[in-house]
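worker-03 picked up job from queue 'complexes'. Input manifest follows; two sequence lines, order preserved.
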Amino acid sequence: EAQVTQNPRYLITVTGKKLTVTCSQNMNHEYMSWYRQDPGLGLRQIYYSMNVEVTDKGDVPEGYKVSRKEKRNFPLILESPSPNQTSLYFCASSPGLATSSYNEQFFGPGTRLTVL
Amino acid sequence: GDSVTQMEGPVTLSEEAFLTINCTYTATGYPSLFWYVQYPGEGLQLLLKATKADDKGSNKGFEATYRKETTSFHLEKGSVQVSDSAVYFCALQGTSGSRLTFGEGTQLTVNP
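worker-03 finished. Artifact:
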C-alpha cells in the first residue's frame, strides 16, 4: 500500500530533551515536507526537500532540523524542544516537479507532540 | 507572498443541507488550487483540485471552481451527510514549486 508513515504518533517530552520524528514514504517520491498544524493557523511549512541531499526552509524553520540522506526518509529533529513546539506535525510527499502529478501531496497520519 | 483565506468556522449543518465554504487567495501568476479534508484523528487527504482558471474540481459530490477574476475557490456540496463532518482546508501551490500554502481550516459538523 502506498503510504507515508510517521513515528511516533504521540509523544510527550520535556523541555530541552532532543527528539526525532521519523517520516518514510514508499512511493519513490522526490519531494518531501514537514508541516505543523496549530488551531486557527492552519498548516505551516517547516522544511521541505526537493530531492536527496537538498533541503530548504519553509515558513517556520526555527528550532527544527531535517536531513534527507535517502529518498524515502525525511526525519524531523528538535535539538532542544520548547513548549511552543507543542503541535500536531505532518509529513507529506509528492512525486516531484518533473512529473505531471507533481502537485498531489500525500500526507502521513500526524504526530502529536507535547513539550512540557 | 502567497496567502489563503477561508471563511471563519465552525460550520454546523443538518443532514441534506447545502454546503458552501468560502476560500479566497492571493498569489502571483497562476497557482494550482486544492481542497484537502481531515477526518478526526487522521492526516489530510486531497479532496479535489484545479490547476487553471475556470477549471472545476469535483469528488464525492463536492465541487469547486477556480475563479481567477474573483481569486476564489469556494467549496460546495448540494446535500451533506453526517460522514462529511471533518476539517476542510483550502490550499494553493505557487508556480515556483511544490510548496503548499494552507488556509486556516474550517470545521464542519453535520447533524442527523
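worker-03 released lock.
The interface with chain B takes residues 4, 31, 33, 35, 40-45, 48, 50, 58, 90, 92, 94, 96-97, 102-110 of chain A (CB under 8 Å).
The mean pLDDT of chain A is 92.
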